[in-house]
Amino acid sequence: MDGSNILEIRDVGKAFPGVVALKGVSFDIKRNTVHCIVGENGAGKSTFIKILTGVHERSSGEITLDGKPFAPTRVRDAMAAGISVLYQELNVVDELTIAGNLTLGQEAHSFGFPKRDTAILEKAAGILASFDESISMDTLVGSLSVAQKQVVEITKALCSDCAVLVMDEPTASLSLGETRKLFDTVARLKASGVTIIFISHKLDEIFENGDYITIFRDGEMIETRSLEGLERSDLVRMMLGKVVVNDYVPSPAIQTETALEVRGASTRKLRDVNFDLQKIEIF
Asked: pLDDT digits over 129-142, tens only?
């Protein structure tokens, strides 16, 4: 295990009945970096993330997390090991306060009644304030913006001593202002020692936030490399497996003759309609 790597993935595969979703995927993720994963729909990104977070069990291969074998069979296993995920669809309950959301399912019991862990709440309050001082633990989640709800999810992850945070299309429902706040949060998490796995179809976000990138195509890992010096055209070529020409300028259309002429057409809904349709040739 290279001490600079928090995750090492070796020959990981996943097969469903009649479908091979991942084929021998191998790459490393360095600690305290933003590692981006890109690829077209169906490239295998979601399957890999679900294996990493305990939703699916891998069919083959090995994963090492912080120097130890990692084989989660459920989401709780991944969270206990320090891997949390921020999904595109946020997992919050609007009818509860922030405190209620952060302790949901983790309540201790006294004489048969649920009792919140004050230590967790104090830790969460400190984390929440470090990201957004405008909201308190007593705030109803339903009154928050999407960006603020994401902060609640991030706070929940950090309360569980998250070492790796997976962000799956995190800006899909955000405004430009909220997106900027999220990017600031990504930088702060990285600075605090959290490794970010960032998944997005928006290449501008990849180049702005990422340190390293892994490209998936047709269930395979095509390349893992630093984003430094990578051209957008090369990234698109690796994602699609072909060259995409963006600067093609078509020749101007040449009008040759009138193909259809309408003069004074009238119906109950139209009056005196006049127009011509021109025949054109494109070279």
From this structure: 887 888 889 999 99
Angle between helices 118-131 and 176-191 (to 10 degrees): 120
Closest CA to 187 of 169, 204, 203, 211: 211
Q: Which of 241, 201, 236 is nearest to 220 (CA)?
A: 241
Q: Where residue 128 falls among pLDDT bands split at 50, 70, 90?
A: confident
Task: Provide the 10 A C-beta neighbour count for residue 147.
Answer: 20
Question: Coil, helix or strand for 153?
Answer: helix
Euclidean distance between CA atoms 66 and 6, whole angstroms:
5
Q: How far apart are CA 267 and CA 186, in angstroms?
A: 62
Q: From 211, 220, 189, select the one nearest 27 (Cα to Cα).
A: 220
Give the single-character DSSP code of 252. Answer: P
In terms of Cβ atoms closer than 10 Å to its own Cβ (0-12, 13-18, 19+), residue 70 is buried
d(CA 164, CA 58): 19
Of 57, 73, 82, 60, the C-alpha closest to 7 is 82
Quote the Cα angle for 149-199-233, to 5°.
Answer: 135
Cα–Cα distance for residue pair 12/7, rounded to 1 Å: 13
- Rounded CA separation 138/144 (Å): 12
Does the predicted TM-score (pTM) go above 0.85? no
What is residue 266's DSSP assignment?
-
Strands 273-281 and 254-265 come out as antiparallel
Would you place residue 253 in the very low, low, confident or very high pLDDT band (cuts 50, 70, 90)?
A: low
